[in-house]
Structure formats: C-alpha cells, structure tokens
Amino acid sequence: MSNLVQLEINGIPVEVPAGTTILNAAKAVHVKIPTLCYHPDLKPWAACGICVVRTSGSPKLLRACCTEVAPGMKVTTHDADIVRVRRTVLELILANHPNDCLQCPRSGNCELQKLAADFGIREIPFPTEVPNIPVDSSTPSIVLNPEKCVKCGRCAIVCQEMQNVWALEFIGRGEKTRMAPAADVTLNESPCIKCGQCSAHCPVGAIYERDQTREVWNALRDENKYCVVQIAPAVRVAIGEAFGLPPGTLMTGETYAGLRRLGFKAVFDTNYSADVTIMEEGSEFIKRFTSGGTLPLITSCCPAWTDWMEKYAQDFMDNFSTAKSPQQMLGVLAKTYYAEKLGIDPAKIFMVSIMPCTAKKYEITRSETMFASGHQDIDVVLTTRELARMFKSTGIDFPSLAKEEADSILGDYTGAGTIFGVTGGVMEAALRTAYCLITGDAQPPSINFEAVRGMEGVKEATIDIKGTPVKIAVAHQMGNVEQVLDAVREDRKAGRKPRYDFIEVMACRGGCIGGGGQPTGATDEVRKARTAGIYTDDEKCVIRMSHLNPQVQKLYADYLDKPLSEKAHHLLHNHYHAKKIYAK
C-alpha cells in the first residue's frame, strides 16, 4: 500500500506522504497559506482560523494547519470568499489589539502586523475594545503584556508541552480569555524558569525580553565606568539574521568590531571562559569518576535548567556540577584577574554580557556567589535581539564591518569553547579534555564525538576511554529532561549503579542556538543552520581542546594555581538552594 497521497491544490497536482496537512502540502507547490497560531515546533490546534481553505464537495471551510490530505482531494486555498473570511478574522483580532505599533518591541517583526499589511487593512469596521490588563514585569528576564495577546496559544503549549514547566495557561472564557501564569499569580511567583521560549514563539509583542539597552547606553557615556563586554558562542551564528543574513552565518569578528564602535573599552569572548568551565567541570567529573564521588555529574551551565532543578528535581542537587556558567566565570575574572593585570579599579568595571538567553538576566543575581569579585560580577545582560537593536540605532552597517579580534587575556578560545552553544557541545568539550587528562594521550582517537550531536531530544552513548566505558546522556528542551532523571531514579530505587556517569542538559531546543533571546522565527531548519555555523567555528580553530588554550594555562599558572583549587572554588563555583516545590 502506497504511503503517498495524490491530490490537487489550486488545480495543481501534488503528491505528499500520508498524514501531511493541507498547510504543508501547499508548500510543496509553492503556495503559502497565511497563519497566526501555527508554529512548526508545536502541534496545530486551529485557534486563529486564518488558514481556512475550501475542498470540493464540502460546504465547510477547513483549517489547513490541522486537516490532513486525503486521496483525490481538491483544495482551493484562495478565492474571494476565503480572502474575505480571513480579512474579517484579522479585523476582529485587531479590534481587540492595542494600536501602538511604534512603541511595541516587535514592531517591524510582528506576524500580526505583517498579515495586516499583506491584507491591506487600513480601517477596523468593528468597535474597538482593548482589554485593560496590567503588564507583568515581575521577573528580571521577560515581560508579559496580556493586552497584546491574540490568544494563539503558542506560549501555553510551549511552556506546558515543550518545556514541561506549566507556568502559563489561559484563564477565563470567550472574550474574557487571557494569558496569565497558572493560578493568576505574577510570573515571578509562578514555576517560570525564565527560559524565554514563550517570548521566542509569541507572534506579537505579548511576551518579550526585559529591555536593558538604555542602562548600557547610560554606562557607555559615564566617564567613571570602564565598560567591557563578552559575547556568548550562539550569538555569533544568529545576530546576522537581524540584518538579513542567512541563519548560521558566522559573525564573530564583525561582532567584536561592532561592540568597539558602540564604545566598549574591551571586548571579551565567553568561549574563553567556556574553556575555563571545562577545566573546572571536567576536573570535577574526573575526580568523581575516578574516586567514587556522586554520579552522574550533571552540567550546570544553563540557568533555566538550574532554576528548574531547584524547583522540580531537588533530589539531584548533589549531582549538579558546582562550576559556574561561562558567563559568570568571565564576569568574575574580569573584575579580579583582568583588573589586577591591567591595574583597573574593579569597582569601575561595568561588565555587559551578550547572551542568546533570557534566563541569563536572572542568573546574574541568583545567589550571593554571583558577587564573588566583591562586586556584582555581571552588571547587565543583553539578548542577541537587544544587541541587534543597539547596532541598528547607531546606523552601523554591521554585515560590512571589517573583522576584528577579541581582547586578550579573556578573549582567546578553542573549538571546545565555541561548541558550548549547541546541544551536546558541553559534553563533547568535556570529553575531549577528560579523555586526555585520564589517559595522558595528546588527543582522543577522534576529536569529534558524533554520538552527542544532533537534534534528537535525548541522546545516550557509551564512550570508550582506553577500555574504560563512560556512559553519558544529553538532553535538550526541558520537556525531555524528566525521562533522563526518571531513569536515574529507577536505578536508585533498585539499588543499581547509575546508568549514566555524565549528563548534559540545556533548557532550549537545540541548546543555546535556540535560546529565548535569539532572533525570533526559529525552527528546526534554522537551528540546524545555526548549529552548522558553530561547528564551522570549531573546525577552523587551530586548538580544539580547552586544556590546551595558552591563555587558560596562563590563568592557572599566574592566578588560580590549578583546577578546583581554593581560589578557583571561591571565584568559579557556586551552590544551590531548594526552592518552593511546584506540583505539575
């Protein structure tokens, strides 16, 4: 029996696999059906009604996003009646939507705004009634503006099904339906982990990152501040999208140059401190693995995952690596090691992080260990989207900038540092160094650990280190994590040795390249392109293992002594606190 279905779309024959929706079948013949609630990451649930189409022999208009094709089906995607229905749906949505596009953070990149422009809507024939619901700005990471909600449902589906957090839901019925945290509390009182995936999937300006660009502009013009900046691995392969470049375009040198043009006195790279993280976290793993410490060791670089663990998986707190994230390590090193080397008063250093992540805004004050320098180690976090807006506001022709280098001593990095930006990257970087430190070999037989790469939600493998098996698991997208944790819980209950020795977790799909602060519109196709850019950066590096970074070696020789030293623990490690337990 054939798994292909033959049908016609606007009179054009098309053959697609069984189970394909009309929406996706139309793409095969280059017909775009407009949508608002649909997103390829999520199951379609036909909320908006804009994608309606007509099929021969049926008086009903069907919703293309969730209607599967059938043999012999004849679909009309556009005619005068269909356009009228779609236009009316849009007009009804706009009648309940604020008319403040110029002040909206999604202006120029709003799906509703684009649809209104495509349909040439200039007037609203219905009475306008915008709901009067206060903005929720209770978290340091993301802001909810329910007045702008178009009730598409994306945020709730992302939060509940992709992320398994259940901080957002729809409250009320009919016209009174609104988006809000569960139990109608503030977002900061909810189980929210600040991952920002709700904002990354929102089609309008109902959920967005807390904009802190003004704080950075104020610091840049303050003569008493010494402004420095760092960029995360995933930023370099996504920021070009804001300027019309294809996803995955590597813009490292251009980003350094652009940041200097903004006025930063030094430009560092978070990839450097990712190499430092491997020295600390990798040494922590080797110590536990060879000396009978608590296993599995679980990576701790993702603050959204850390927040989730402190709320939902407190039985794994002893398994968590105490190593800080690369962002926090670079912040404290800038205000101690760098300040000492250059003779700068650390109180004057204003450290800005450019991150693909909204949770990083929360991380910088999450505990007292984020003040290990004697000051707040990171002063402000900007997302990739915020940096793009800063570049645009200055008129910088970003794609045309000549490439520049980062400032040493906190800028040189290896290929292992840059792959932190993708799922499996922290694990692969750690394995490259762990193999060498355990065996004494110059490098592993293959420096690429393919088993931890790819978009599969959970990846498991056994890595052979000269006859010693190391069992690992890699999970990305929070909704996939509990399956790994439950497997370990089963082993505990049965009194068995843990099935994993080392676990990597990243809260966002694809890892940091799909973070909540990246340019909107991410799909798996976009994530794969960004991932390819990261691996390109890795492969072009002369040195691809963290422990071989000369500047990292110098850091330990001159300042920290050795990984896991007393000084390293004070500056580069943290601890965790159990938080209120939320039932799911």
Order of strands, widest sheet:
2-1-5-3-4
Q: Find the count of extended strands (DSSP E, 2+ residues).
A: 17
The percentage helix is: 25-40%
The low-confidence parts are none
Your description of this structure?
The chain has helices spanning 22-27, 80-95, 111-118, 154-162, 197-201, 213-220, 252-262, 270-291, 303-312, 326-342, 359-363, 384-394, 415-418, 425-439, 481-494, 524-540, 550-560, 566-572; strands spanning 4-9, 12-17, 52-55, 61-63, 74-76, 142-144, 168-171, 178-181, 207-209, 226-231, 266-269, 297-298, 349-355, 380-383, 458-465, 468-476, 502-506. It has 584 residues and is an alpha/beta fold. The model has no long low-confidence stretch (mean pLDDT 95).
Keywords, please?
584 residues, alpha/beta, Ubiquitin-like (UB roll), Alpha-Beta Plaits, Rossmann fold, 3 domains, 5-stranded mixed beta sheet, 4-stranded parallel beta sheet, globular
Topology:
Layout: E1 4-9, E2 12-17, H1 22-27, E3 52-55, E4 61-63, E5 74-76, H2 80-95, H3 111-118, E6 142-144, H4 154-162, E7 168-171, E8 178-181, H5 197-201, E9 207-209, H6 213-220, E10 226-231, H7 252-262, E11 266-269, H8 270-291, E12 297-298, H9 303-312, H10 326-342, E13 349-355, H11 359-363, E14 380-383, H12 384-394, H13 415-418, H14 425-439, E15 458-465, E16 468-476, H15 481-494, E17 502-506, H16 524-540, H17 550-560, H18 566-572
Parallel strand pairs: 1-5, 10-11, 10-13, 12-17, 13-14, 16-17
Antiparallel strand pairs: 1-2, 3-4, 3-5, 6-9, 7-8, 15-16
